Amino acid sequence: MIRIQVRKTLSMSEGEKALQIETSLETGSFTAIYGRSGAGKTTFLRLLAGLIQPEQGYIEVDGQVWLDTQKKINLPPQKRSIGFVFQDFALFPNMTVLENLQYASGNKPDQEFIKQLLTMVSMEKLAHRKPTTLSGGQKQRIALARALVRRPSILLLDEPLSALDQEMRHKLREEIHLLHRQFQTTTLLVSHDLAEIYRLANKVLIIEEGSISKSGKPDEVFSEKRLSSKIQLTGEVVRIVPGEVVYIIEILTGNSIIKTIATKEEAEQLAIGSQVMVFSKAFNPIIKKL
Amino acid sequence: MNQLNGVITSIETDGNISLVGILAEGTEFFSLVIDTPQTASYLKQANNVFLIFKETEMSIAKHLTGGLSLRNRFPGIIRSIEPGKIVSKIALDFKGQLLYSIITTQSVHRLHLQVGDHVEGLVKTNEISIMEAI
Amino acid sequence: MNIDYGPLLLTFQLAFTTTFFLLILGIPLASFLAGITHKSKSILEAFISLPLVLPPSVLGFYLLLAFSPTGWLGSFLERVFDIRLVFSFEGLVVASILYSLPFMVQPIQAGLEALPASLKEASYTLGKSKLQTMFQVLLPNIKPALFSGIVLSFAHTIGEFGLVLMIGGNIPEETKVASIAIYDEVETLNYEAAHVYSSILLLLSFTILLLVYIINKRLLNYTKE
User: Fold this and answer.
1) Which residue among A100, A174, C137, C167 is least packed, with the fewest CB closer than 10 Å?
2) Number of domains in chain C
């Protein structure tokens, strides 16, 4: 169980704003943090990691107190059991892939585990390459593997896939899913990719104006409560097939692809990768027992 | 999607299903929803809502006579026809609002639909979604 | 012709010693400056950069006053440590460190500031101390900057004249460095010796700078790979 309560004043371009967050996470859970840029999502991760200090707060991770401003307890980042994946990956350019992982591993590198991690992210063949020679997706895999080397209590992912193209996002999303299943590391993911959140997270926190405005399961939080349509799916546009009068839009939702039609004007608003909601009245679908 | 702004005028509920009457542009529309005023806060008399229905769910009728189970019938003038091989898109002027209908091109020919024709738009009650207007 | 190579030797001895201490002093100072953002940063930066614009004789004059056995610092050092910094090699080293400080600090600071903050933070989250992070992550990634700092400080120390003259004087084997020796030889119209010293310094300075440019280019390409 992870209990978090922090308060921090953010100085933004539009003036000062208070970030005030209180939540708890189940050990082994995967939680997504969603919100507009500037809402304080990254700040929240950095507060957890101890990279910045809150004015007031309490953080307890699996029984260990990391931060208690009342009792003046404040563990430095080094003493907090975290794996942090940065938006820019933050791989050390002077070290090879393997050395990056070994550096994380400490004085007595657990070579077996490092090898296992490299294999899991399919990077064992590139172990002796320098990070600058790798593609974005490969860098991201190494950053993930490196963050897991110390078997952290919490894995913090700061928009880990935002710098990648659509196809690579898909692949890495699945890899993150597998890694989470394998290690059951409590994970916090900052993302504004709905498909990513739906695929990976079992809980989502929406941060607005510095505090949690909504939380719950992704489908509960994101479904449009103001709409009468009973069939509502969120997904990602994967293909747009133009036609004369109507276009066919293919949407990935969960593990399945659904097809729906749209007018040309509607299709022009969409692109591959667009996050969409598909809704329909409850009266059309026909149910057949399998 | 087609969208019309209207005001809720009647709500008839049985079990979990409600038939909602909505006045839009002086015409009364009906929508069948799996919701009740208890489950959906926007189902209130005089509440401002949007009617939403897909282009493919709107039919066109010309010189319609006799009985019809369809509740949502509204007059309009054809402003444009965008023909395709299989389907065509028709823009219907409903009291100044353009609503689109996608029907088979065969039907367009069969009904001799032309720009300027006075026709009727038809939508089944279960094809209209209601969205709260804010 | 009998040329005394003592002054040249002394010059290099001074340059080596100064560069060595500058490196030890410059890294923490540069990393401190790179890490702070408040107003005191500008004051410190301006102070360190003073030797870039100040006539060496000004710095020399103040140091002479400070180091003099009758000044408070000079008398303190002499009483407690039995060190005299005027007209001594040790004094030259201290003065040279101050004089060449910006040449060491500025490149390293710029190098550190150019590194993304996430490198440092990533290292911290991997459990590494500030010191480990500095030596294993930050410094290895600013090799060109370190190299520039070392070479420029070294070269700048070789080129000192006014400062040495002010606080070192002209004591053979102690403070008579090559630049002073050249002045000395010209004064006594011994142009031949002055030529030898001058040409050696000229050749050397050019070689050093050439090396800096060549090696820096390589280092930059290497880090880009």
Assistant:
1) A174
2) 1
As a whole number, mean pLDDT of residues A73-90 equals 94
Residue C109 is assigned to a structural domain of this protein? yes
**Cβ contact A–B (≥3 pairs, < 8 Å):** yes
Q: Please list every residue in chain A whose beta carbon sits closer than 8 Å to the beta carbon of residue B42.
A: 226
Chain-centre distance for alpha carbon B98: 12
Domain count within chain B: 1
Q: What pTM was estimated for this model as a whole?
A: 0.70
Nearest 5°: the CA angle A220, A262, B123 is: 85
User: Cβ atoms within 10 A of the Cβ of A252, count?
Assistant: 18
Domains and CATH numbers, chain A: 2-221 (3.40.50.300), 224-280 (2.40.50.100)
Full domain range(s) for residue B27: 2-132
B79 CB-side CA count, 13 A:
13
On whether any CB of chain B is under 8 Å from the CB of A94, the answer is no
Give the per-residue pLDDT at C217.
80
- Tell whether A245 lies on the interface with B, counting CB pairs under 8 A: yes
Task: Say which range, A111-120, B92-101, B122-131, C82-91, has the weakest mean pLDDT.
Answer: C82-91
Interchain contact, B126 vs A281, CB within 8 Å: yes
Residues in chain B closer than 8 A to A284 (CB atoms): 126
A117: tokens are 């991690």
pLDDT of residue C225: 43
Q: Does the beta-carbon distance from A84 to C224 stay under 8 Å?
A: no
Are the beta carbons of A88 and C127 separated by less than 8 Å? Answer: no
Give per-residue pLDDT as tens, B47-60. Answer: 889 999 999 999 99
In chain C, the residue whose alpha carbon lies closest to the alpha carbon of A132 is C225
